[in-house]
Design goal:
Layout: H1 2-21, E1 24-29, H2 38-46, E2 51-54, E3 57-60, E4 69-70, H3 81-93, E5 97-100, E6 103-106, H4 120-143, E7 148-153, H5 156-161, H6 163-176, E8 180-186, E9 201-205, H7 218-239, E10 243-248, H8 272-286, E11 292-300, H9 321-332
Helix pairs in contact: 4-6, 7-8, 8-9
Length: 333
């Protein structure tokens, strides 16, 4: 009887214990014009991912405008409430947990960190418009019982100038959504965010410059992480919160780790090895740490067969050697 009891206890606890200690192995699931189908989700499952970030969008006409336009008929399906809900349902149906990550797009691709108003009146309009945007998707997150909600992405000037608004917004989101909350700070913004103690994770979009070499080795890249890693851990210890890379990833191009945030240039030489090395370095450097929760690779397109490929120099790891690196690492962690 004792042996039977031990066996039952092992069967009950073994898988649960493994699941509890597994990291957030995520993909940034890019919004599309179309509904998502089972075949699209299967590629996420094949990657051994256990999370996906669903990213509906709001739009601002320019950096001086306080009005956010969202959930309109002119947007792609995946950028709207209806589309986000459909994506969530399909992901959850296939065992993938979700982080809702509503994002702002500024006209002409201006960096969102520069969003700043010139008058108190416009700040108040922006605050109300942004609250409407976020609370709308907090309701979707609540209705579908998702795991994690991101209240903003790379909004440095907004966060810096209106700290009281953000702390109040966190409480309003918690009044609707009962899951965990984070904010996605840019790599050079995160030390100055004033509300880390109010959320569940220190969220960082991890585009840290690591090396100026054309094809840095894994060892060079891990050495490049040393300074940043110590600073990140120090903040984690100070506010007693784990760290989550709300975005991480590298373009498959020469000098990929020099300025990893670059997206605008199309003419860099394809370099698949550089992407592999940079991806391997970040996974090996962080996923072993107890204070580190995991991350979401940038980015994963729904139509997998048409995405990426060995002639592509953009961020996605799809159909490139980096995909296999992530697949194997996610399987083991």
């Amino acid at each position: 009887m004792y042996r039977v009891a031990i066996l039952i206890l092992f069967l009950l606890q073994g898988p649960c214990s493994s699941q509890v200690t597994r990291k957030i192995n995520g993909v940034s699931f890019v919004a599309s014009r179309e509904e998502v189908a089972g075949e699209h989700i299967q590629e996420v499952v094949n990657l051994n991912a256990n999370y996906a970030a669903v990213m509906p969008f709001g739009f601002i006409r320019d950096t001086g405008s306080p009005e956010i336009i969202f959930d309109t008929d002119r947007q792609w399906f995946g950028e709207t409430r209806k589309g986000a809900a459909q994506y969530i349902q399909m992901l959850q149906k296939n065992g993938i947990r979700v982080m809702m990550k509503p994002q702002i797009w500024l006209r002409h691709g201006v960096f969102t960190g520069k969003l700043q108003m010139q008058s108190e009146e416009d700040w108040k309009i922006l605050e109300q418009s942004y609250e409407d945007f976020i609370m709308s998707y907090a309701e979707v997150a609540r209705d579908h019982e998702i795991a994690l909600f991101c209240i903003g992405t790379e909004l440095e000037q907004f966060v810096h100038h209106r700290p009281a608004f953000w702390k109040a917004l966190i409480q309003k989101v918690r009044g609707v959504f009962k899951g965990e909350i984070t904010y996605a700070a840019n790599w050079d913004e995160y030390p100055r965010v004033s509300f880390w103690e109010e959320v569940d994770y220190i969220g960082i979009d991890a585009y840290f410059p690591l090396s100026g070499d054309i094809t840095p080795s894994v060892e060079q890249l891990r050495a490049g992480w040393e300074k940043y890693k110590g600073e990140i851990k120090a903040l984690s210890d100070t506010v007693n919160k784990p760290v989550l890379f709300t975005e991480y990833g590298y373009r498959s191009m020469d000098y990929t780790a020099k300025k990893p945030w670059l997206v605008e240039s199309e003419d860099e030489k394809v370099n698949l090895i550089a992407q592999v090395n940079a991806t391997r370095a970040i996974l090996e450097e962080f996923w072993v740490e107890e204070w580190f929760e995991g991350g979401f690779v940038w980015k994963w397109f729904i139509s997998h067969k048409q995405a990426g490929g060995e002639g592509d120099n953009r961020f996605t790891p799809q159909n490139k050697p980096a995909q296999m690196v992530i697949r194997d690492f996610y399987n083991d962690h």
